[in-house]
Amino acid sequence: MTGRESPTYAPPMNITHASFVTLPVADQDRALRFYTDVLGFEITADLDMPQGRWLQVAPKGAQTVFTLSGPGMGDFEPGSTRGIMLVTTDVDADCARLAEAGTAVQGPDDLPWGRMATFRDPDGNGLMLLTEARHQEREEGDA
């Protein structure tokens, strides 16, 4: 194989989507304020469990939710998650909102796949904002 060829596997599995992504946090209340007040996510679950609080948030209508995993809810290191891509229709406006809320933002920068910026949540988890190129092209065509 050359490295670009796909190996042959058994028949495809039946996976339809990711249920949740774990974001390890040190303080669930602080993280909840950031994800709801700054990013505008909604609370999808807030339950007391024997191991601790099961707290989940998501953008409105999203299929995949984010579990804000606090102490006692697994062997996770706060701030260790990287590479979470959040798609937005207006990366520039969202970057301005993050900056107003005191969050450091790198970018946005124009890239072949769209306009993208990076930032970290209060625990240091790395997130990205992306306005996809095809969305940018539609907006520019409307102007």
Could you please describe the fold and organization of this structure?
- With 143 residues, this protein is of the alpha/beta class.
- It has a single domain, classed as 2,3-Dihydroxybiphenyl 1,2-Dioxygenase, domain 1.
- The chain has three helices and eight strands.
- The chain has helices at 28-38, 91-100, 133-142, and strands at residues 20-24, 42-49, 52-58, 65-69, 84-87, 105-111, 114-120, 126-132.
- The termini are far apart.
Q: What is the 3D shape?
A: globular
C-alpha Rg (nearest Å): 18 Å
> CATH class, anyone?
Alpha Beta
Order of H and E elements: EHEEEEHEEEH
- Roughly what is the average pLDDT, rounded to an integer? 89
Largest sheet: 4 strands, mixed
Count structural domains. Answer: 1
Care to count the β-strands? 8
Strand ordering within the main sheet: 1-4-3-2
Q: Distance between termini?
A: 47 Å
Q: Kindly report the CATH topology.
A: 2,3-Dihydroxybiphenyl 1,2-Dioxygenase, domain 1
Structural class: alpha/beta
The proportion of strand residues reads 25-35%
Q: For this structure, what is the CATH homologous superfamily?
A: 2,3-Dihydroxybiphenyl 1,2-Dioxygenase, domain 1
Flag low-confidence runs: none
Number of DSSP helical runs:
3
Second-tier CATH architecture: Roll
Helical percentage: 10-25%
